Amino acid sequence: MTLIVLDRMSLLGRIVAVSKDSEIQRLAQQYGREVFGADDLTEALNTVKTVSPNLILFDHRFNPSHIREFLTKADKYLADVPVVAVGGDDSDTGLSNEFIRMGAYDYLQGKQDYSRLEQIICRIKDNLRTTDPGARHEKGSLESGSEQSTSRFFVESLAASVSMVGKSSAIINTLKMTKLVAGSRCNPILIVGETGTGKEVIARAIHTLRHPNEEFVPVNCAALTANLLESELFGHVKGSFTGADREKTGLLELAGSGTLLLDEISEMPMDLQAKLLRVLQEKTFRKVGGIKNIECKATIMASSNRNLNNEVQANRFRRDLYYRLNVGPITLAPLRSPDRREDIRLLAEYFLKTSNICPEKHAKITSLTQLAMEALEKHDWPGNVRELSNVIERAILLETTDKIGLSGIVIDPSECSRVSGSPTANLIKGFSLAKAERELISRALQETGWQKTRAAALLGITRATLYAKVKQYNIEKNSSAAKKSASVKEEQNEFPVSSLHDSVAIC
Ligand SMILES: Nc1ncnc2c1ncn2[C@@H]1O[C@H](COP(=O)(O)OP(=O)(O)OP(=O)(O)O)[C@@H](O)[C@H]1O
Ligand SMILES: [Mg+2]
Fold first, then answer.
1. How far is CA 131 from the centre of its chain?
2. Nearest atom, ligand 1, residue 204 CA
3. Is 167 in the pocket of ligand 1 (CB under 6 A)?
4. What is the DSSP letter of 389?
5. Which residues, 6 or more positions from 118, have their beta carbon under 8 angstroms from its beta carbon?
6. What sign for the dihedral angle of Cα 31, 34, 37, 42?
7. Ligand 1 lined by 164 (C-beta under 6 Å)
8. For 25-55, what is each residue's pLDDT tens digit?
9. Could you say which DSSP state residue 127 is in?
10. Does any ligand 1 atom lie closer than 6 A to the CB of residue 199?
11. How many other CB atoms are there within 10 angstroms of residue 269's CB atom?
12. Residue 200 alpha carbon to ligand 2 centre in Å
């Protein structure tokens, strides 16, 4: 570890390090005049109450929802105290966003990033000066005021571990249902809604409420071929098929007493659907080629952005499995629906506050102009919350002042093709992203003589994605791309809302 020699003035008064890791304790000692260790959340809360720290370091063994739980509880005792999460050297980079969204001030990506703590401390001190000039000389607590608090974005009366921003009636109803389902023995659990509406957020929330210390195992049913998916889910015994040169543990078994999330369940092949139904009914399964029954203790969740009832009508999804899954479904409304639309403003402010895309701009860009906000509120958001989050991140990247203006709101034109009535939509009538994508994939496959690895490389996607797309668009080997594109199934609005006509696109 590099030793950073700091000027005494750069030190913070009191740091609480919530970690058993001596490296993290040492890191805290380099930057704090006084350092207090805590092994768990209860001890951390008690310490925070007594010592009023200026900074709390959390090690990554506490997951993001622990941070949120802690912040909710600590809020009562301290106005706001910045929390910095310290990841492991091999931590997944995606984790950092999750920590920030849960309310962490910043995230250190393992030891190689430890030296950045110095900049973070300077930023905390700068905030302190700008928000409270009287705090130039450190007091017991860090009064960065509402700068750090994310609590206003959430419905606090509901579960603290649900990091679902929103206060609309649609979100309140979804959260009520989430809490009911999490507190019950409902298994399997079905979560439906358009892409980007927050199905995985809800799945993780239920998991945290039910099995906080167990594994959460997500698997995307669209990303694997039928055979691969089966052996991923159930595992296989050695020699059960060509290439099975060793025994494999399936995801169902890996999930243990935790959660297995079957994402995009509508894409699961029919024969595998039958096998899944058997697992749900009998609570046991066998590895591919195996004879031993293995008990299934996990909560099985399934999510879908297609209307499963329509899939049943079209004979693409088994009716019996649909009924088995559909006991207490949780539905996420599209962001444009009249009873969720009011959350656009709150979500935009939340992403602005919590985005980690440009740490140096983090505290500088404070708001959006009225015009920019109105533009966001008028857009239709076919990609829902994910699209909104991307638009805000792009705006932060582009912005050079302290306010995001209308010119910073750049919406991906391909998303606008779904919005009827907009000038862009008229221009590209009869054309769709799905058609173009299918065309391109067909050509790449033809050009490479259906060598999927080469075709995937040509397209810049993984083989798994290529398989999923070939299946999605029903591309067959001996048919011309042109003939096939006529049969492309246009993406439909599977979760319709009543007031689409008043939406305006900004592209
Ligand atoms: N209410 C919310 N508050 C904060 N972030 C949200 C909310 N809803 C969604 N997000 C964020 O938006 C992104 C998309 O959410 P998520 O992955 O849960 O969507 P999804 O419904 O599972 O989409 P898909 O069907 O494409 O898999 C994630 O980054 C998630 O953290
Ligand atoms: Mg998802």
1. 31
2. 18
3. no
4. H
5. 4, 6, 10, 31
6. negative
7. yes
8. 888 888 877 778 888 888 888 887 776 788 8
9. H
10. yes
11. 16
12. 5
